Known about the structure:
The protein is of the alpha/beta class.
Amino acid sequence: MPSTYSAVSYGQSLSPADLAQIRAALTNHGCTIASERRETHPGFAAAIFELGWLAMNGGDANRLVLLRQALSEVGPLEASTAVVPDSLLRAPRKFIIMDVDSTLIQQEVIELLASHAGTEAEVAKVTEAAMRGELDFAQSLHHRVATLAGLPESVLAEVGAKIKLSIGAERLIAQAKAAGHVVAAVSGGFAQILAPLAQQLGLDYALANELEIRDGRLTGKVAGTVVDRAAKAEHLRKWSAEAGIAAEATVAIGDGANDLDMMEAAALGVAFNAKPAVRAAADAQINLPNLDVALVLAGIVAT
C-alpha cells in the first residue's frame, strides 16, 4: 500500500504570505493538498496540510528528501515545515522518546556537577565537541566524569533542585499520556537525576548512566555500560515493542550526535534546537524553545 504524508508547518507566527509559499513549494514538487487546517498553541502557531501525493513508489525515494529540502528554504527563520508520514499521524497509540540534557531539560547536568568541582569550563568544552560528533561519546563521558571524583553525594540533590524543564515539556508529556500514548526518556546523563524527574513527570520508561558512589562520594566513574547512541536506538525498539507500538508510530527527539541513531530508528526523528549536523540528519526540526511542538508533529490531540 502506498505511503501518504502530511506537511506540518509551525512557528511563532505563520502569515498568509508564508502559507502561500509553503503551498507553492508543495505543488511545485508534485503534491496535491487534500485539506488544510490552522491551529493555535501556547507560544506557536501551526498549519497542517494533508497531501494527496503518494510517495515512496518505485524510484521516487528521493522525492521526499527533495521536498523536505525545498520546504526548509521556505518561510521566516522562526518557522519550519516537516513532512510527516500519515502512519504516525493516524496511529491510535504512539511512542515518544526524548533525550534529556538540553532537550527534556534546559541544562547539561554534567556541567552543573562540574561547577562544584571547578572543572565546568573543561567539561563544557568536551561536551560541546561530543554533541557535535567530534569525539567518541563513551570516551568523552568517562573523561568528564573523572573530573567529578571526590564530590560529595549531596551535590546530586543540589543539582537536581536546579533543573529547569524545557518550555512545553510538561504539556507534551501530560497531553501525550492523557491521550493514551507512551513517553520515554533516555539519557547519556545520570540516573540519579533522571529517576526522580521521571517519577515526577510520569514517564513510562527512563534510562541513564549510573554514577558510581562509594563512602558518600563520587568515584569519578560510571557503573555499568555507558548509555551511548546505540543504546538509545536499542531502547527505542525494545520499549516500543514492549508497549505494542509499531516502529511506524514512533518519534525520537534529541539535540546532539548521541541521539542520531534513535532518530534514524524512529518513524520521525526530530532535532530540538540542535547542533547543525543533527538538524541536517533529522526528519523535522524544532527551532523554537517549545518542546510541545512535538504534539503537532505527532498528530496528538489533547483529550
